[in-house]
Design goal:
mainly beta; 22-stranded antiparallel β-barrel; five-stranded mixed β-sheet; 12 helices
């Protein structure tokens, strides 16, 4: 398929250049209409466009379930990423953040998006970040990139923090308003558009151990010329986050939290090797490791393999390698961002605005030195699985060629694992550059005695990522270095895979290793045209209409290192990915007043919206939405919406090439005579090729899972209901402003794009002998799993159901200030996934459980109590996360958690209160997250880092 990226890029640059020229022209108009952004419009007392609708309305008469997070709320968290702020919302499931330390060393997830190392994403309602739409000032933002795939979600770390004024989170589906992806909700980031003078801040924070040092410096400047109608806001920010190693926290120094020695969770790839080979004398299978670390050829006595004349002994759990200390608990990164927002009048009723953004992120991830696995049970899926180690290799102690069963030689070994400590840890460094350019013409015109507002928008955005990885091995060179010594000539150096730690020389390292360089990019062109106004005035109010058109074109690509693409890497295999799509969309929305100012009907209004989308890759789709809002009395609003939604497959999901993911899964057939397996499980395992004597034992807790995209994917569809209300009693006016909000939601997604989880496939195969599940699993002759196929399909059904409760209170003056309370909670009634089986379907309910990196607590709650005055402010925030269990680990209980955060601030009266000082501590009690056995520590999507995090901030305006 050919995509005209260069042509689109040229046209977008021309449009941006025209916008820039217009931005530099003097604006001669002396009057202006209401600006396009809601914040500015609200300042002028006009109606505004609010998140979730294109119809202009009174911002105080908002009917949709909307959570607003302003700059004060953001500052109160002490966090340096808007992604971290949003992930604390009770209705959020978390998402990628800097506590994830994966760069592909464990493989790529099945969605074709790569691991997105260093990114931050938002996931509402546990439906996945790809089903939450992120907007910037009501317009789409480009999806992220991180040099490991083509992601289908926005990286919030690509948006400069210094430009954020507030964030609006719509807790309702909005596909009819914004198109694809808005199934779970919408996050609309509103940027600064009006500011007078400079605002500057500097914040530094760290953990008690002195690591994880975070620096956050922000500067912005704004000016508005009332005479000409020109307004400019520009700013920069620099954020640096230091690392925290797992080895620097004793509790997390081993894969099992709290452990002080290795268990089966540690790796069998040890510096002294693990050798599953047949005795050349007897043909008996052996499971060996070295007694010490001989630096040359070890001794082997076939008559007594573990005797005094042999350097080998039987491999035990105590010989496993602890990889954990090399890993980050908190990954380091740096972000630099710059922006400019311009707005000017081109006439009495026409305005031009432009937005330019540049953001650069550098980040790092790290894993233990490479576990170099070779042999037919290694599960690499490439040349390493077929390597034979020739008898002439000078370091081969067995005196025979160790054959993988190919090239006409009978198989006589299963697996050799050697931790490549001489080459140091695997280190991954990313650099991501994002550029966004948007221009808008907007205005108003009179039609039939009414005022209609219009806007035309053009956006061009692109990003690129580069990743450099240290620690990979060229499999072709390794095969030559392990093969016949007569063929290891020229630069080739025979390789010692049998010696102990230190036996691999620098010359060997230089020949078999390479520096891996991957890259990826995405580009987006988005053009929209909107118009809104009043069709007619009805007795209960104006009949409002909004309509519009959108064209969007997106392209993306991922290019792995040439050696990796050739299938010759020793880490995760990957192939190039490239693709794109175009979409044309039209929509219309009505606001229908029914009754007003009658008994029991202070207000009754309905709404209806429809959108038609035509994708070049996924066909066409029409979605609809209807709503009703009723105020029986002035203080109470009841509301309800029904909505259809859809999500078109992302570029990675459509075009992602096959790759491997090493999932943390336990094979029920492993050691089935001692693992408590039932007779049915044993029988089914034997039927699938596992030795009947139970000799097969899983070598490592990670199994190879084949992942990849599917060009035949269809769009996901959804149906959602939201029913709720807001009570704002006027009788409390004497004691303060009180608001109570409650919303019930249920969202069902059909044709959900997913792969069947490896744990589900294994359970269905071993427990019920399901042919669909068993057909996706390949085992070697020893019983070891060499591949589990998990390619994407439209197979799943998802359901998320729960209730949001929000209480807000602000007191009248108490002394010199006021007291406020904001309490938000989420009750998760159900989150379930339904997947097909050979005889029907299987429903997996996940509420109240932890699933290896994502917790689904039935109850989450945040409450903030604050006191503020012109000179002083103080706040105490409590964050509660309910109990969950881990079904995969005998229903291990992860206890409920309560985090407490505190902050105090002082704005001295001198210098016109232009200085402010803030001190804060997050997790002031130093709570440690509950042990997550399936996570190898704690769940980074849901829980904080252990220990307190203290910070100090100084702010200035001038």
């Amino acid at each position: 398929m050919s995509f005209k990226t260069q042509s689109l890029r040229r046209r977008a640059y021309m449009g941006a250049a025209l916008g820039a020229m217009l931005a530099t022209m003097p604006a001669y108009a002396q009057t202006s209409s209401a600006p396009a952004d809601p914040a500015a419009q609200a300042d002028e007392g006009d109606t505004v466009v609010v998140t979730g609708s294109r119809i202009r309305r009174d911002p105080l008469n908002q009917a949709a379930p909307l959570t607003s997070i302003d700059s004060a709320d953001i500052a109160r968290t002490g966090l340096s990423s808007i992604g971290d702020v949003l992930q604390r919302l009770p209705g959020s499931a978390g998402g990628l953040n800097s506590r994830f330390n994966s760069s592909g060393n464990n493989g790529n997830p099945p969605d074709g998006g790569g691991v997105s190392a260093g990114s931050a994403e938002i996931d509402l309602r546990y439906l996945g970040s790809r089903r939450t739409l992120v907007l910037l000032d009501g317009q789409r933002f480009i999806n992220g990139t991180a040099a490991s795939g083509v992601p289908g979600a926005v990286d919030l770390n690509a948006i400069p923090d210094s430009m954020i004024d507030r964030v609006e989170v719509l807790r309702d589906g909005a596909s009819t308003t914004y198109g694809s992806d808005a199934i779970a909700g919408v996050v609309n980031i509103i940027t600064k558009k009006r500011q007078n003078g400079f605002l500057a801040s500097a914040q530094v924070g760290a953990y008690p151990q002195g690591d994880g040092v975070t620096q956050n410096y922000q500067l912005s400047w704004g000016h508005r010329d009332e005479g000409s109608g020109v307004s400019v806001v520009a700013g920069v920010n620099y954020i640096k986050q230091g690392e925290v190693f797992a080895g620097d926290r004793p509790y997390y120094a081993f894969p099992n939290p709290g452990a002080t020695a290795c268990t089966t969770s540690c790796s069998s790839g040890t510096p002294n090797g693990r050798f599953l080979v047949n005795n050349p004398l007897t043909g008996e299978g052996m499971n060996l490791t070295l007694k010490s670390n001989p630096l040359t050829t070890p001794r082997f006595d076939p008559t007594n393999p573990t005797g005094a004349n042999s350097d080998f002994k039987s491999f035990t759990v105590a010989d496993r390698f602890n990889f954990r200390p090399y890993n980050y608990l908190l990954t380091p990164q740096e972000r630099f961002g710059a922006f400019i927002n311009f707005r000017g009048d081109l006439g009495n009723d026409v305005h031009f605005s432009s937005k330019l953004i540049y953001n650069r992120r550098t980040s790092d991830n790290q894993a233990a030195p490479l576990p170099l696995f070779v042999g037919p049970d290694a599960g690499n899926g490439n040349l390493l699985d077929t390597i034979s180690i020739d008898r002439t290799n000078p370091y081969n102690p067995f005196g025979v060629t160790l054959a993988a069963g190919n090239a006409g030689l009978a198989r006589n070994y299963d697996f050799i694992g050697r931790r490549f400590v001489e080459n140091g840890p695997r280190h991954y460094s990313q650099e991501v550059n994002t550029m966004y350019m948007g221009s808008t013409l907007d205005g108003k015109l009179s039609i039939g005695g009414g005022t209609w507002y219009w806007d035309a928008n053009l956006i061009y955005a692109e990003n690129s990522a580069k990743q450099v990885a240290h620690g990979n091995v060229n499999a072709a060179n390794l095969a030559r270095a392990l093969g016949p010594v007569s063929q290891c000539t020229g630069a080739c150096v025979p390789f010692n895979i049998f010696g102990g730690a230190g036996s691999i020389t620098q010359a060997m390292i230089n020949y078999i290793t390479f520096e891996q360089r991957d890259r990826s990019q995405q580009a987006m062109v988005d053009a929209t045209l909107n118009i809104t106004g009043t069709l007619i005035d009805l007795p209960a109010g104006p009949l409002g209409l909004a309509a519009g058109y959108e064209y969007r074109h997106q392209t993306g690509s991922f290019t792995p290192d040439a050696i990796v693409a050739a299938g010759l890497g020793s880490d995760i295999p990957a192939q190039p990915t490239s693709g794109g799509f175009g979409v044309n969309e039209v929509y219309a929305e009505l606001s229908i007043p029914v009754l007003k100012d009658t008994p029991f009907f202070r207000l009754l209004e309905g709404s209806f919206a429809a959108r038609y989308s035509d994708y070049s890759t996924s066909g066409n789709r029409t979605t609809m939405k209807g709503g009703l809002s009723w105020k029986p009395i002035e203080d109470l609003r009841l509301r309800g919406t029904w909505a259809q939604g859809f999500r078109a497959p992302s570029i990675g999901e459509l075009f992602g090439t096959p790759s491997r993911f090493d999932g943390g899964v336990i094979d029920p057939c492993s050691d089935f005579n001692n693992n408590g397996a039932s007779a049915t499980v044993k029988q089914n395992c034997i039927a699938r090729g596992v030795p009947a004597n139970g000799s097969y034992v899983q070598a490592n807790q990670q199994l190879p899972i084949l992942t990849g995209g599917n060009r035949a994917l269809k769009p996901e569809t959804s149906e959602s209901w939201v029913l709720g209300g807001v009570y704002s009693p006027s009788w409390t006016s004497g004691i303060g402003r009180l608001s109570l909000e409650a919303d019930y939601y249920t969202i069902k997604v059909d044709n959900a794009i997913s792969s069947i989880g490896a744990d589900v496939l294994l359970a269905n195969c071993t427990q019920t002998n399901d042919p669909v599940a068993c057909g996706a699993i390949t085992r070697s002759s020893s019983g070891a799993i060499t591949q589990i196929r998990g390619l994407l399909q439209n197979i799943a059904s998802l359901k998320s159901e729960g209730v949001d409760l929000i209480l807000s209170y602000r007191s009248p003056p108490v002394g010199a200030g006021t007291i406020g309370l904001n309490w938000s909670s989420n009750f998760l009634f159900e989150y379930s996934t339904t997947l097909p089986t050979a005889t029907g379907s299987s429903k997996l309910e996940q509420q109240g459980t932890e699933r290896g990196g994502q917790a689904y607590p039935r109850f989450k709650s945040n409450a903030t109590l604050d006191w503020s005055s012109p000179s002083f402010a103080a706040s105490l925030t409590g964050r509660y996360i309910g109990r969950v269990i881990e079904p995969a680990y005998d229903n291990h209980v992860m206890r409920p958690m309560l985090y407490l955060d505190a902050q105090v601030g002082w704005t001295p009266g001198f210098w016109n209160q232009r200085l402010s000082f803030t001190l804060g501590v997050n997790n002031i009690l130093g709570k440690r997250a509950p042990d997550c056995l399936s996570c190898g520590g704690f769940d980074p999507t849901t829980y904080d880092m252990p220990d307190q995090f203290g910070y100090a901030r100084i702010g200035m305006k001038f």
